[in-house]
Amino acid sequence: MKQVYLLFMNSYLRFWKDKVSVLLTFIVPLVLMTIFGSIFSGSGSGPQGIRLAVLNQSSSPVAKQIESSLDTMKNFRVIKSFKNDSGKVITFDTLSIQEYVRTGKASAALILPPDAYSDTSIGLYVKFYYDPKNDIEMQTIRGLIQQVVFSQFPSIIAQSGLRQAEKFLGIQSGTAFNRDMASIVHKYFKIDTNLILHPKLSDFSIAGSDSGKNKSNFFQNVVRIEDQQLVGKEVKNPWATRSVGGWAMTFLLFTLTASSSSLFEERKSGVLLRLLTSPVSRVHILWSKYLFNMSLGIIQLLFMFFAGWAMFQVDIFSNFFNLLLIIIAASTACTAFGMLLAAFSQTRQQAQGLGTLFILSMSAIGGAWFPTNFMPATIQFFSKLTVVYWSMDGFLEVLWRGVGLISILPHLGILFGMGAIINFISIRQFKKGHIFD
Amino acid sequence: MSASMINIQQISKKYATITALDAVTLEVHQQEFFGLLGPNGAGKTTLMNLLVGYHNPDSGTITIDGDNVTQDSLEIRKRIGFVPQSLALYDELTGQENLEVFGKMFDIPRKMLMEQIQEQLHAVELYDRRKDKTKTYSGGMKRRLNIIASLLHDPKVLLCDEPTVGVDPQSRNAIFEFLISLNKQGKTIIYTTHYMEEAERLCTRIGIIDHGKIIALGATDKLLEQLTYEETIAIIKNPSTEENKKIFEKYGALVEEDDHFELKPVKRFLLSEFFADIEKQGMQYSWIELHRPTLEALFLQLTGRRLRD
Fold it and tell me: What residue of B is the nearest CA neighbor of A278?
């Protein structure tokens, strides 16, 4: 028994001395739990700052109420105007708002047309334009908009109907008429008469709009949402097209981190020393590693996209040149990240432990697994500092939106810029030379 | 005396607070087999790393074949072959592939390189295993491959940093013979070790290094002349020898080891005189051995420590 105890304690001693194991056991799960928790547990404030373009052409109070509700929601960043090429601020019209979504500046647009609602009609009519480049985000936007529309609507429609009846029939007759109408609706639509006469939002389920899966309920018959997908209609496999980039990026980072930390193996075996006693300099070694990792990254990404094409019909060929540019830029930046880890770590284990922590965190906050809009504002800020975010966005621009070179220049610039900055830091660290000691 | 091949002048090197080398001055001649002997941590590997330009010294200069050695002097490395202490090989590659990888770094024309590889593989009897991955090699085979990987560019100088660590006696002998033949072919060799037997067997001249300083330098026989005694006498312990050990002390300093006494004579005397004396006392002894003076003893005399402490 004593031996078991001694061996048991020995295991703990060795575990505690192995900082990488401690990191992977406690810190990595803690960081990921924090990120996931802030998104899904409700402890965060839900999706934030989703860019929604809004055009209200209606003068009705209902439309104004919907518009002002959207304005106050933290979930949305409501945009009602745009700057034209000469920098002049212009309010949206029906064409420019669609173009705004089409070019990726907003995830969706809501138009409240002139005939959205009137006292003489029963029903609300809105137009919804969207770009489902991120399916989860789009589902969320739909849900939120329906919530706003329906939360405003029940009392107004009921009051409006009652008011119309009373106006034409007088109060007594109107009340009797409303009761009779409620009975008729109950008879044909199976809706509780009390619910019709005293409506509350919570009494109704929220309906979808264009999916054809709508339940037959009262709202469905009176709220008409005309929606139109502006981007990605021709995409053969939307799910695969959206997700292939995220998976590719996560595995690319793992590959390049492992490959960069092979420097530690070469140091340990003495190969690095042997090479440095031949006509080879430290700069030669670092450049060869960098170029190898970068080319390996490009090959791996190409392989994954080809696999996406072969298995899931992801269309990689109609915009292949631009896809290749993003692949090169992403690989450049990711390689620099791998070299940075190698430069700052003391051992291969340390590099891989830190790599796991950063890769999973970057993938989570960079949008590889779920939309960045679901994260708190602070994390959204940091997500834009990650290689994953810009690579993912670049892949989506190319594969989903099919944009040209001009549109991906910012992505290319940022990714190459990140690569250059990270390389600069790595080289400074390598010059201090612990890996060559 | 042949011309100087390696000239080390007042070299110092510090790592944080540790002085690895302290104003070391040393000259190695052309075609010399020079041994650098010292315990672990004495500064041997640091000196080798400076000789190959892996690190720059904090002060002092090193010239090899007339040219200054610095971290940036890549050209001079073509004249140096370095056998590192560790097995600096790619385990996942075959023996031949390893040699090709390292040989190509020296810009050797392909045909010449392939001839060199074949020749060297034959020389260390690894030709038949050339297509096997090195991870399948025995320790001795890896050591031999480790050496010939440093010879493909036919360097003038060969620096061997403890090249026989962990090798069985048979392979060690093979390596010694190979290195001796290289020296006979004209290569200047510096060989570091903490095994005095290796240094005594291989090297014509030896430097003893301790705490970053050269504490003795010269031909082996000249170095041994510095000893205050010429040989030691080992007497195995038994009740009789232990009882009469005072007799031994008449002849010199007596060191008591686990199983024997080690007598270091302080003056010259005849062995017949020594044996007659102990016989006279009726001492019962079963085993007495005369030891030749060694570098180990010299190191002990110079530092008060054993080489492998």
Answer: B77
User: Residue range A159-177: average pLDDT?
Assistant: 65
Please report the sign of the dihedral spanned by the C-alpha atoms of residue B67, residue B72, residue B78, residue B79: positive
Q: Which of B13, B51, B54 to mutate to test binding with chain A, by most A CBs within 10 Å of its CB?
A: B54
Q: Do A274 and B54 touch (CB under 8 A)?
A: no
Residue A214: what pLDDT? 42
- Domains, chain B, with CATH or none: 4-224 (3.40.50.300), 232-292 (3.30.70)
Mean pLDDT of B48-57: 91
* The pLDDT of residue B151 is above 80: yes
ipTM of this predicted complex? 0.81
Please say whether the dihedral angle defined by the alpha carbons of residues A208, A210, A211 and A212, taken in this order, is positive or negative. Answer: positive
Residue A31 domain flag: no
**Chain A residue with minimum CA distance to B103:** A278
Q: Is the pTM of this model over 0.90?
A: no
Task: Give the rounded percent of residues in chain B with a pLDDT score beyond 70.
Answer: 97
Set of chain A residues whose Cβ sits within 8 Å of the Cβ of B102: 274-275, 278
Examine the domain organization and report whether A383 and A432 are in the same domain. yes
CATH code: domain of residue A71: 3.40.1710
| Among B75, B80, B85, beta carbon nearest to A277 | B80
Q: Is residue A9 part of a domain?
A: no
Tokens coding B14 = 């510090």
Phi, psi of B192 (to 5 degrees): -100, 145
Same domain for A125 and A68: yes
Crossing angle of helices A282-312 and A320-344, rounded to 10°: 140
B87 three-class SS: coil
Task: Tell me the per-residue pLDDT of B209-235, one tens digit each, with 9 for 90 and over.
Answer: 999 999 989 988 788 777 766 678 888
Residue A133, pLDDT above cutoff 90: no
Residue B74 pLDDT greater than 80, yes or no: yes
| pLDDT score for A329 | 96
Q: Give a yes or no: residue A29 inside a domain.
A: no
Cα nearest neighbour of B75 on chain A:
A279
Closest CA to A260 of A392, A326, A389, A354: A354
Chain B nearest-CA distance from A432, in A, is 12
The pLDDT-based confidence of A167 (bands split at 50, 70, 90) is: low
Count of structural domains within chain A: 2
- Can you tell me the mean pLDDT for B190-213? 90
Higher pLDDT, A153 or A182: A182
Give the single-character DSSP code of A207: P
User: Regarding predicted confidence, which is higher, A223 or B253?
Assistant: B253
Examine residue A279 and state whether it is found in any structural domain, yes or no.
Answer: yes
Q: Are residues A163 and A96 in the same domain?
A: yes
Domain hosting A201: range is 50-229
DSSP per-residue letters across A379-392: HHHHHTTSHHHHHH
Q: Is there a single domain that holds both residue A191 and residue A258?
A: no
What does the alpha-carbon distance between residue B229 and residue B226 come to, in Å, rounded to a whole number? 9
A-B contacts at Cβ under 8 angstroms = 56
Least Cα distance to B46 among B164, B187, B159 occurs for B159
- Note whether A186 and A298 are same-domain residues: no
What was the pLDDT predicted at A322?
96
Query: Are residues A294 and A432 located together in one domain of the fold?
Result: yes
